[in-house]
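Lab notebook, design round three. We kept the backbone fixed and only want residue identities now. Task for the bench partner: fill in a sequence for the structure below.
Input structure tokens:
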């Protein structure tokens, strides 16, 4: 009986997150209410508070659902034991771009994240949390790049911090702009060439080399 109760609780949590995505996507994060999310999920507001503290907590749990499927690839590129960190990173970047177009859930959440969230007072410290997440992403990318340098896959004098900032901004910009005008081109079809171009930048750009005083 206890296991069944746990399974039911998890089902309810999934229902709530599914409804959160739909309501956030339709109304925007700041205009969506917990009452509307509860109604869309077919549960009470109390059920939401059983699983989540507030709207910010819901937002973070929603993001986690698209982060987890790619976490294994990200960790592989960051591992010093990985023999092909640059190859793993390339796989990760291609997959990120393709799923924005091809996976409905990923596309919906990215549209919310990039075009339907306002950092209002109601959302509390969400802005700071997103800033911390972005900074952590830069650090993780830099770690993967250092692994690639150590494996001889990238120039020994690559400025990994600056390269990580550039790579992060490139990927964010591609996804944000494509979501705004998706009819312009197929992000999935262009994904490999778009990632190859940023790989070329890492290998060849003089601006990404360590500057000697």
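Proposed sequence:
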């Amino acid at each position: 009986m206890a296991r069944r109760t746990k399974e039911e609780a998890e089902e309810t949590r999934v229902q709530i997150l599914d409804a959160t995505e739909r309501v956030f996507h339709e109304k925007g994060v700041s205009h969506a209410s917990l009452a509307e999310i509860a109604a869309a999920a077919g549960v009470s507001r109390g059920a939401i508070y059983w699983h989540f503290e507030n709207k910010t907590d819901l937002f973070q749990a929603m993001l986690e659902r698209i982060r987890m499927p790619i976490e294994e690839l990200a960790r592989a590129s960051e591992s010093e034991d990985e023999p092909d960190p640059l190859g793993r990173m390339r796989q990760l970047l291609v997959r990120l771009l393709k799923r924005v177009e091809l996976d409905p859930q990923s596309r919906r959440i990215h549209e919310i994240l990039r075009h339907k969230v306002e950092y209002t007072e109601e959302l509390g410290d969400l802005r700071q949390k997103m800033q911390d997440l972005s900074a952590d992403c830069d650090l993780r990318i830099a770690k993967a790049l250092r692994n690639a340098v150590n494996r001889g896959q990238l120039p020994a004098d690559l400025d990994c911090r600056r390269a990580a900032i550039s790579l992060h901004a490139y990927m964010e910009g591609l996804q944000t702009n494509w979501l705004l005008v998706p009819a312009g081109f197929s992000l999935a079809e262009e994904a490999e060439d778009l990632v190859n171009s940023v790989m070329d930048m890492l290998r060849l750009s003089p601006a990404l080399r360590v500057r000697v005083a």
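Keep this in mind before ordering anything: The chain is about 75% helix and 0% strand.
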